């Protein structure tokens, strides 16, 4: 159900992944937030907050240039030095690791949500903090599956309901952006491992958001192996990722075609 909780208030979505920003922005708009700005990294967010007042910030934790943790520490310092009211900052992270929530709170964030972002959970987090009527935190749901489908049906249907007539353009943009990232990794043999890992991390995050379950799982496995120093697996696993994107594109084409009839 759409809400008026954000009427005449200003929100900022901070994420280096354009697809993730669009999902979060659309959710906020559905919740009644009429004014939503976007930033690609923590430094841009810091600059925007210094020049404009925001009531809510959705802050990704892992970003290039300046990550969410460093950005929030700088934001809180600036607010204190300039006697500004503290804005509500909710952390967004693609990982569920021990100590993550504590790290977010210690950096100065008010709450913590995991990706892929869920409409109901975002609404609950905003209400919880704006109304200050509860102290409980969201539970973290983990789904294990030995046979992961190409498309997460539940997430796909939620995206269709959220984006409505814009869902076809959204998935077209998503596929184009994902294929571009994979092509960039494959075409640059001299690409630093850190850059490749960052692109894979971005692919993993957006895959979870749009319901590309199999792609998310493969990207997550590859990211973990790259972090462990297994550089030799990159090209081999890229083929698996690209094949999965091809499968995803075919299934989306069929499903979206059916929605038009």
The count of β-strands is 5
How is the largest sheet built, in terms of strand order?
Answer: 2-1-3-4-5
Helix content: 55-70%
Based on Cα principal axes, name the global outline. globular
Task: Name the helix and strand elements from N-terminus to C-terminus, one letter apiece.
Answer: EHEHEHEHEHHHHHH
The amount of beta strand, in percent, is 5-15%
* Structural class computed from helices and strand pairing: alpha/beta
CATH fold-type name of the largest domain: Rossmann fold
Compute the CA-based radius of gyration: 19 Å
Count of structural domains: 2
Kindly, what is the distance between the CA atoms of the first and last residues, rounded to a whole number of angstroms?
Answer: 26 Å
Low-confidence stretches: 132-146
**Assigned CATH architecture of the largest domain:** 3-Layer(aba) Sandwich
Give me the CATH superfamily of the largest domain.
Response regulator
Oligomer: single chain
- Major sheet: size, sense and barrel closure? 5 strands, parallel
CATH class of the largest domain: Alpha Beta
Count of helix runs: 10
- Overall mean pLDDT: 84
Q: In short, what is this structure?
A:
This protein is α/β, with parallel strands linked by helices and 261 residues long.
Describe the secondary structure blueprint for this structure.
Layout: E1 10-14, H1 18-30, E2 35-39, H2 42-51, E3 56-60, H3 68-81, E4 88-93, H4 100-107, E5 111-114, H5 119-131, H6 153-163, H7 167-187, H8 193-210, H9 213-227, H10 234-259
Parallel strand pairs: 1-2, 1-3, 3-4, 4-5
Descriptive notes:
By secondary structure, the protein is of the alpha/beta class. The protein has two domains: 10-131, Rossmann fold (3-Layer(aba) Sandwich), CATH 3.40.50.2300; 153-259, Four Helix Bundle (Hemerythrin (Met), subunit A) (Up-down Bundle). Helices cover 57% and strands 10% of the residues. The chain contains ten helices and five strands; from the N terminus they run E-H-E-H-E-H-E-H-E-H-H-H-H-H-H. It has helices spanning 18-30, 42-51, 68-81, 100-107, 119-131, 153-163, 167-187, 193-210, 213-227, 234-259, and strands at 10-14, 35-39, 56-60, 88-93, 111-114. The chain has a five-stranded parallel beta sheet with strand order 2-1-3-4-5, with helices on both faces. The protein is globular and about 55 Å long. It starts with 9 loop residues before the first strand and ends with a helix. Residues 132-146 have low confidence and may be disordered.
